[in-house]
């Protein structure tokens, strides 16, 4: 019978080996957690921007049906254009209605997100926003 060059150990893992594996796994997890949080914030921002685009489309449809006039407040979009006003994914509340700004002649509007939770990404208080002249920013 041939003898193997390497002896197979029957003793299992030693405590120091187990601690080394746990340390390496913990280090990897600690490196990944900030990236996962950043991904959540970016996903919420993307959802907020999509809400702004959808509301601007609804506002444009409203204006087309009402001789190019926009509603005085976003509640004018219900129930024909929206069942309910969307909520900002990062704030879980209606942060769009408080910031809706309409000109005196009801022909020009600006629609910012008034949520404070986008500041983690370096955005200002009224960002992101949709304006007729600039479109979606940032």
Structure, described:
By secondary structure, the chain is α+β, with helices and mostly antiparallel strands. It has a domain at 44-137. It contains one helix and four strands; from the N terminus they run H-E-E-E-E. A four-stranded antiparallel sheet has the order 1-2-3-4, covered by helices on one side. Strand 3 (129-131) and strand 4 (135-137) form a beta hairpin. It is rod-shaped. The termini are far apart.
Mean pLDDT: 86
> Largest beta sheet, briefly?
4 strands, antiparallel
Are there runs of 5+ residues with pLDDT below 50, and where?
A: none
Q: Which strands sit side by side, in order, in the main sheet?
A: 1-2-3-4
User: How many extended strands?
Assistant: 4
- For the termini, the CA-CA separation is 74 Å
Number of helices: 1
Strand content of the residues, in percent? 5-15%
Computed structural class: alpha+beta
Percent helix, as a range, is: 25-40%
What is the element string, with H for helices and E for strands? Answer: HEEEE
* Shape category: rod-shaped
From the alpha carbons, calculate the radius of gyration and give it in angstroms: 27 Å
Summary, kept brief:
It is built from one helix and four strands, in the order αββββ. With 138 residues, the chain is an alpha+beta fold.
Question: Mind sketching the topology for me?
Answer:
Elements: H1 15-65, E1 101-102, E2 109-112, E3 129-131, E4 135-137
Antiparallel strand pairs: 1-2, 2-3, 3-4
Key terms:
single chain; 1 helix; 138 residues
């Amino acid at each position: 019978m041939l003898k193997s060059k390497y002896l197979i150990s029957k003793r299992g893992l030693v405590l120091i080996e187990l601690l080394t594996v746990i340390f390496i796994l913990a280090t990897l997890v600690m490196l990944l957690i900030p990236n996962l949080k950043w991904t959540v914030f970016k996903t919420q921002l993307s959802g907020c921007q999509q809400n702004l685009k959808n509301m601007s489309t609804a506002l444009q449809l409203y204006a087309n049906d009402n001789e190019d006039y926009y509603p005085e407040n976003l509640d004018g979009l219900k129930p024909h254009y929206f069942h309910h006003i969307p909520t900002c994914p990062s704030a879980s509340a209606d942060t769009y209605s408080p910031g809706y700004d309409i000109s005196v002649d009801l022909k020009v509007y600006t629609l910012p997100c008034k949520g404070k939770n986008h500041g983690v990404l370096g955005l200002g208080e009224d960002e992101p926003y949709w304006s007729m002249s600039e479109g979606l920013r940032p």
